[in-house]
Design goal:
175 residues; disordered C terminus; single chain; alpha+beta; two-stranded antiparallel sheet
């Protein structure tokens, strides 16, 4: 599935068009969804308004589109939320997931995936990526960043979910 199709479907919706007219400064910053087997969950498409520092999320589920009202951001630091560049979004979700799966099977074969979460985002110092996170049977997360233009794996990191239990997440603050 091309994310561009989801974004086109979103922009064709009259309610979304009206919202965008009233929020011209809001920028598209992420697309989030989960994968189980060959099924994709609903898509959460986030627009960020830097002036109000609020996020509005549109939920695309088949042909249905709903809005999740503006909410506060939970950010780790003061790094900016960069807008997505749709022109450089040339690889498909399937290509990114295939690249991540190859890394998981080759380098982390003992880590059996239970859930897969995907966030398309534009990260400072990294660029536009499919940020793919596997939650595994051994209660770890395997995070794989895949370039959104080339579908090349940029990084992979395995972290125990228990390594942060009982500890505050350093630097996390509500904006």
């Amino acid at each position: 599935m091309k994310i561009n199709y989801i974004l086109e479907q979103l922009r064709d919706d009259q309610g979304v068009q009206a919202w965008l007219e009233h929020h011209p400064q809001a920028k598209l910053v992420h697309v989030f969804f989960m994968v189980q087997g060959n099924n994709y969950s609903e898509y959460h498409v986030g627009y960020y308004d830097e002036q109000t520092q609020k996020m509005t999320t549109f939920i695309v589920n088949g042909t249905s589109i709903s809005i999740k009202e503006e909410g506060d951001l939970l950010k780790k630091d003061d790094s900016p939320l960069l807008p997505l560049d749709e022109k450089t979004l040339t690889s498909t979700v399937e290509e990114a997931l295939d690249a991540a799966k190859k890394v998981q099977e080759k380098d982390y074969a003992k880590e059996i995936p239970l859930k897969i979460m995907v966030i398309l985002q534009n990260l400072p110092d990294v660029g536009q990526v499919y940020n793919i996170t596997y939650v595994t049977q051994s209660m770890k997360t395997l995070n794989i960043k895949v370039d959104a233009a080339t579908a090349q794996v940029l990084s992979a990191q395995l972290i125990s979910l228990f390594s942060t239990m009982g500890k505050p997440l350093d630097g996390l603050e509500r904006k």
